[in-house]
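Open question from group meeting: does this chain pack into something compact, or does most of it stay loose? Before anyone orders reagents, we agreed to write out a predicted structure and look at it together. Recording both the input and the output here so the notebook holds the full record.
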Amino acid sequence: MLTKEKYQKYLDILEEELIPAMGCTEPVAIAYAGAKARKVLGEMPNWALIQVSGNIIKNVKSVVVPHTGGLRGISSALAAGIAVGDADAELEVLSSVSEEQVKEIPLFMQTCPIKVERIDGDVVFEILVTLRSKNNEAKVRIIDNHTNVVYIERNGEVLYENTTRTVKQKADRSCLTVEDIVAFCDSVKIEKIKPVLDRQIRYNMAIAEEGLKNAWGANVGKVLLHSYPSDISAKARAYAAAGSDARMNGCEMPVVSNSGSGNQGITASVPVVVYARETGVSEEKTYRALCLSNLITIHLKSGIGTLSAYCGVISAGAGAGAGIAYMLGGDFHAVAHTLVNALAIDSGIICDGAKASCAAKIAVAVESGLLGYKMYLSGNQFYGGDGIVKKGVEKTIESVSRLAQDGMKGTDLEIIKIMTDEQAGC
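Structure tokens returned:
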């Protein structure tokens, strides 16, 4: 039941999760840690150590770090944060870097040795940066979330420590349910959600259009659009994929992320906006549908975790399919069946790090979301007992969470081993 308290929590969740990010969020988190550690040190270091969990290696190894002149990898991300990053800007730590400052990054890497080590432990998302100058030392540790600093030390003195590992949030994500999300989107005052969604539309559509305009990565978006120029579902997939084409391959335009991921933010928003523009639905309905897509994505990701072997855009693609179903007149039952169908189709897709092929996975995820909706419209569905599908949408979401968190742990370790057979780029 959607209470007044829950209504406010849903607004808080949207504001907390839909935040601007410059570039792939894992390298940016490293840059943020580096900038934060340099600020604590109080001067430029002459030695640096970064220790990271395997999933951070996986998600940074192959992606271009923004505002570095095309540099890739952990050392580059850390150097950028230390040399020119703004520690107060969090996930926009590199957003204001000038062309002159870009030249400072390789010069810093020549003068300051950077050592990279892998942390073998139970924490999936962990970054620990240690910087030293002639007379000082500073440490900063981030875990579980891209900006969740839990430890700061200077010259052996602990300046800050969060022993609970709690990510600061106004609202516990466990309050989310599909039924209440639909009720919230039916009743929320548009002026309450319009500012955060307007920013998401503006940022994410702009990078999608850039991905279609110029050559980025494998040009997945362009291939789709040229292959199916008059198909609305292909256009929705193409625009979403194009945003990732650009973002994964060095485009320095910002995006609004969802659950800590820019690709998830693009996937949850761009297909809904494309469908709204192509079908001519009202502005109000567009906002409500976009709100639903984002909250469904957050609901799914809350049970899965920030990083895992389960590809995050699968959740966002299912969210987009549910948002489009809602936008075109669907009620709770339409949203729930669309979601279950979509999750049954492509929940086996792995996350093997941030790189060009993420764009193709986005296209597949959106296609599954749309197929899930079309199945519902034609009176077809997957039933409880069909594989991981359970009776009821919430039970199916629990199955996916269990699969991603517990069942794919071994898969995640093997993916990281495969990816780190060659250490180039780390």
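Observations to bring back to the group:
The first strand starts at residue 20 and ends at 22.
Residues 190-213 form the longest helix (24 residues).
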